[in-house]
Hints:
By secondary structure, the protein is mainly beta. Helix content is 9%, strand content 64%. The chain has one helix and 22 strands.
Amino acid sequence: MNESIRRRSDMKKNLTLLLIIISSSLLISGNSLADEVRLKNGDKLTGQVVRMEGDKLILKTTYAGEIIITWQEVAAVRTDGSVKVVLKDETALEGNTEDVEDGKMKLDTGKLEAPATFSLADVKALNPEPVKTVKITARANASVTSERGNTKSDNYYFDGEFVARTKKNRYTIGGELTKEKADGVTTSQSWVAYGNYSHFLNEKWYLYADTLSEHDEFKDLNLRSTLGAGAGYQFFETPLLNLSISVGLSMVDENYDLGEDNDYSAGHWSVNYDQYFFDKFVQLFHVNTGFVSLEDANDWFLKTRTGLRFPLYKGLTATLQYNFDWNNQPSVAAETEEDTKFIFLLGYEFKN
């Protein structure tokens, strides 16, 4: 009996030791299974390489969520798992990385006689998202307030935008509608509609044609319409960061109810920027478009939309937005050159 008790005691000790060894191995493996990004300034970052596209590397960390690293600042990348690499000549490779000197990348594909070695400057993308024939982004927002009692007012604001993006083309349409009443009297009534077609010559440069129509009863503006074309540069186009700037020429036609009608050729610029922060907790956006007459430099107008957009749940969003419009030579019937508006909007955003 004593022998049997001793054997059971030894089995328990062996089992305990085995569990300790397994747990320690899993802990060590869990800590070591991390991708590493080494920067040119000597810093080392660990996490999971999500992807690199548009010269922006996305690294998911446990301490700061997803962070964006400029690809030109990266000296070396090491991944613990398989990684997909697309070179600038469209060569596609997949395999495990191996240690190599700074500025280069070494990939064991298991299919070539020797690991492939290439410069980081030749890398176009890491783990690129599956290519969609058409990428669609659609957004609609609304702000409605109604007051009753000593003050009777109703304010409505709606805006929306639809963007379809293919490899070579981008189609954009959108608009805004505003109506405000106080004690049964209309105090603001306006709408804006716009459209843009962009054709990409390469990954960054594009040609565009666009149009804008605008009506504002309290600016004495019956209808302003523009038609133009030009060129633009797409600095960034990623799920986290987008920035483009374009310049061109437009024809502007302004029809006023009381003031003198006007038409002229104009220079046109446009800036479109949006970026997510804090692991997609909030998105900062800024859109600025302006027109300046080529016949009278003092005759110009611009429209700016700036704000913070908060994703809520399954496409639902909340937005704090500031609208600023300026017309440097308004109609004589207009009260002022500027219009400003702070708005809180609820909306829905769709991305395929």
